[in-house]
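User: I'm putting together a teaching handout on how multi-component assemblies are represented. Below are the sequence lines for each component of a complex, exactly as they appear in our records. Could you produce the 3D structure of the whole assembly as structure tokens, so the students can see both representations side by side? Please keep the chain order the same as the input.
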Amino acid sequence: MLKLDEIWQKTCNILQHEVTSASYDLWIKSLEPLDYSEGVFYLSTSSETAKQRVLKLHEEQIRTALTEVESEIKDFKVLDPDEKENYLNKPQVEEQEVNKATPLCNFNPKYTFDNFVVGNSNKYVYAAARGVAEHPFDKINPLFIYGGAGLGKTHLLHSIGNFLIKNNPDLKILYVTCEKFTRDYVESLKNSNSKANTEYREKYRSVDVLMIDDIQFIANKTGTQEEFFHTFNDLYQNQKQIIIASDRPPKEIASLEERLISRFSMGIIQDVQIPDFETRLAILQKKAQQEHYSVDDDVINLIAEHCDTNIRELEGMLSKVSFYASLLGKPSATLEDVTEALKDQISTTKQNLTADRIIDCVCKYYSITKEDIIGKRKNKEIVEPRQICMYLICEMLDLPLVSIGQLFGGRDHTTVIHAREKVSDLIKENNRIKVTVNDLKSMANRT
Ligand code: ADP
Ligand code: MG
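Assistant: Of course. Below is the structure of the complete assembly, with chains in the same order as your input.
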């Protein structure tokens, strides 16, 4: 077992990617590790309000991250200053409570198929995930899901897990992040006795369903790739189910061995795309309903408009706005609260700008339609604005290239790189392009 501080540090590293930076600074940073006893990890906070907020906003995420870091942890508790004092003075009282700790469950109960909003951007990946959940060990093996950050990959893996466990409680399902898989592997090597090695193999090869999240981190780790290859073969030959998530397709994971790429291709490789406006609205409405947030429709519209590439951020904005309204004692969050609560996120020019807005400007400028720009036509009148548009999005927004490719009808990220380079060369030698790009930049910044 790792030391208390180490466990918490690693958990924070995970949480940093799971929650918005505002929430991380405000709530997660206010927690301090206090104790670990009989499966329960104790954290302390500075006030009772902080405790309530952190539990309301991030209880499941903290629990999942803690169990991911240290599988012996079954539950956690947050203690406000009074409770902390009681805990430190009367440990025997807490010991009784410890026995009531909930059993280990790796899957976040909120991440279910029912809570997953299906739209054009994710209907295929949803169907594939549902297919595996309903008919595991069958045709969809392995299932490889990929797509940008915050688009629901982990949610889908947990949904499959929750579904499988519910219908078949005896199944042995192991969900790990690639980081954990690697860490376990490295640990087994460090111990260099055959027992540690056997235990490691036993752990991964005795399961019925293996899920590895964020497999892209296997890039450049030759030893782990080798081990994973053997684990994969072993499970596959024994008709076990394998499910993998990644932020990019197999062929774009740096140095991923050909033999692994070909293993992944034996099943289904399916991407999850950036949600369109209607899906974003539906997700926000569902979230508001689930969390009992009371927010005006205008607020939901505004958030959906401003945040178009990451559902985690979308949800973060909603919870921040509703928290803000509750601080002011308002029954329902209004537009005014959005402006105030999200001023860091949406009022600066850069963040005000979205990919959709840039695409709109380019379409207006060239008098073409959005369908033209994201479509497949290759005539010069369309290719130039399309490439300029990709260039502007690369330059003006901080978006992953894969996501930009997706905005343009699911193009490969190498196409985006090509467009960016081509336009930046053209700007140097062609004055008309230079003027156009500058005009478009100021047009996008003005709107
Ligand atoms: P990823 O693993 O792709 O980075 P997550 O699965 O962690 O993304 O999703 C980020 C957040 O967005 C989660 O809170 C998840 O519940 C939510 N989310 C993503 N997609 C959907 C969806 N289609 N419907 C409802 N919530 C979603
Ligand atoms: Mg994830």
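A couple of points students might notice: The longest helix spans residues 48-69. The pocket of magnesium ion (ligand 2) is lined by residues 153-154, 213-214 (CB under 6 Å).
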